[in-house]
Amino acid sequence: MNKLTVAVIGCGRFAQFFVPLFKAHPFVEKVYVCDLIREKAEEFRDRFEVEIIDTYEDALASSEINCIANFTQRHLHGDIVVRALKAGKHLYSAVPMATSVEECQEIVELVKKTGKIYMMGETCYYYPCAMFCREAHKQGKFGTFAHGDSQYFHDIDAIGYGKTPNEAGMPPLFYPTHSTGMILSATGAYAKKVVCLGYKDTVNDGRFGKGTNEWDNEFSNQYVLMELSNGGIARVTEARRIGYKSPSSYISGFYGVDGSYEFSNAQHILIQRTSKPGEPEKMNLTDVSDYVNPKTMTENKDDPEFKIKAANHKWQWSSFAPIQQKEVDRLPKEFEGLPNGHMGSHQFLIDDFCKAVYNNEQPILNAWTSARYTIPGLVAIESAKQGGKPMDVPDCGEPPTNKVK
Q: Are strands 145-153 and 233-239 parallel, antiparallel or unpaired?
């Protein structure tokens, strides 16, 4: 594969962390930026020393550009991605995959048809809590999976899209992948059925409610029970009106028949059965916090204000945790000292995408996996509208295991 030429579409707050990573990656030849607001593109051009491409249509028509990096508003992703794939481009997209089941299914079919790489940049796949549960589950420390809880607690007043009343009022489960991605990646399963209840917002600030946004959405919080393909049950929550800050995305509990994992703010606990069948019940408890927490958090745990700082995202951005070290070791040396973010996940994601395109291989967060993380939330929205009606979740199947064509 020739080197990548990437057009970053959308020069907002989130994209600024990724342009330097694309530019530095050894498999990338050149980076362009594009935004409907010319001044934003010019600011990125000057700040990161890249070139501007005037419109998205120009990027799609360019024979030089072979990759699109989508950082547009989340409810626009489906159309952006579909157009890119039809134009023969590889596609890196911020979450979510799309905001309708049909768009997700179309993206999977287009990837099959075109042979192009699609990757969704789900940061929480590389969150230490998700990585720990994947590792421990694979090692058999939990036994057969029974139940897990994951959540994305992000109050609307502290979220980027909360500034515009209409966009702020979108259903929380348009953006489900921070919750679903952690628990599903840890179990290795996918959702077969969902039941969802919604919390009807009571603040009346013009964001949530009938007639206040284009989705007529009145739920600021949505709570989903998922029946998984492995027979277990998961509970995921997307909450936008909640008095909680850190950590905003996390697995709070992961339970098998022989062991469990529990987490609260800065403490990670592994509990395992040590008794044999027929013996008196006996469990062993191990504090694995120093293994799962960011290294800088552990280094500061004797700080007199540790609890307050931990509760206010002091160490929840760029620092790696020990469990992430084996992933850190595979990163290109060019990334050293560059921006990172979201529990150290950004560099992993961009490296995954660039290597997938360059080596012509499916990334971990490919179209099939992305659909499995996204579609349960979209179906759950309809369940909540119908007062918690159980609904089947369509599945796009397993991703291919060989190289793409």
A: parallel
Q: What are phi and psi of 41, to 5 degrees?
A: -65, -40
Q: What is the pTM of this model?
A: 0.96
Q: Report the distance separating Cα 129 and Cα 92, nearest Å.
A: 24
| Ordered DSSP codes for 192-260 | EEEEEEEEEP-S-SSSSSTTTSTT---EEEEEEEEEETTS-EEEEEEESS-S--SSSEEEEEEEESSEE
* Domain locations in the chain as residue ranges: 125-316
Amino acid 277: pLDDT: 82
pLDDT value of residue 403: 55
The residues that bridge with 339 in the sheet, in sequence order, are none
Structure token pair of residue 342: 């979201």
- Given this model, what pLDDT does residue 165 score? 83
Cα gap 118→15, rounded to integer Å: 18
pLDDT at 405: 40
Query: Cα 320 to the chain's mean position, in Å?
Result: 17
Tokens found for residue 327: 């992933």
Which residues of the chain, if any, have pLDDT below 70?
1, 402-405
Q: Which two tokens stand for residue 363?
A: 């990334």
**How far, in Å, are 170, 175, 341 from residue 98 at the CA level?**
13, 9, 23
At residue 125, φ and ψ (nearest 5 deg) are -60, -35
Q: Are 73 and 11 within 8 A, CB to CB?
A: no
d(C-alpha 345, C-alpha 331), whole Å: 11
H helices of 248-366, where? 289-292, 295-299, 306-310, 325-328, 346-359
Residues 133, 254: contact at Cβ < 8 Å?
yes
Sequence-distant (6+) residues with CB within 8 A of 86 are 110, 114
Residue 354: HSE in the Cβ half-sphere, 13 Å Cα cutoff: 27
Phi-psi region of 178 (alpha: psi -120 to 50; beta: other; left: phi over 0): alpha
Length of the chain: 405
- DSSP structure class, residue 2: P
Question: Which strands sit side by side in the sheet containing 191-200, from one edge to the other?
Answer: 283-287, 267-273, 259-264, 249-256, 145-153, 233-239, 219-228, 191-200, 391-392
User: Would you state the pLDDT for residue 41?
Assistant: 98
CB count within 10 Å of CB 310 equals 21
Domain 125-316, CATH among 1.10.4160.10, 3.40.50.150, 3.30.360.10, 3.20.20.70: 3.30.360.10
Residue whose C-alpha is closest to residue 402's, from 105, 112, 3, 6: 112
Amino acid occupying residue 7: A
